[in-house]
Design goal:
elongated; 3 helices; mainly alpha; single chain
């Protein structure tokens, strides 16, 4: 079979055995970084603040679900 005309995704080695780093365009990384940042902030909210007067969800089931995580991360709870 003949070789493909598509460029190789493996970086070419440089002199001395060093490897050229891959180029990652910001346009491909930015949406994932924003999504992960939003999910992390949401997680921090539920672990750190979802209790008592600041509760957005009625009841204590979220507090009980993240209770051990609150203590592990150093958030005061009771």
């Amino acid at each position: 079979m003949s070789d493909s005309a598509a460029p190789s995704t493996v970086p070419a080695p440089l002199a001395g055995g060093a490897v050229r780093p891959l180029k990652l365009p910001l346009r491909e990384i930015a949406p994932w970084a924003v999504l992960m940042g939003a999910l992390m902030l949401l997680g921090i909210y539920f672990v750190g603040s979802e209790e008592g007067a600041f509760s957005m969800v009625g009841g204590t089931w979220i507090h009980e679900f993240v209770h051990d995580g609150r203590h592990l991360l150093g958030f005061p709870c009771h």
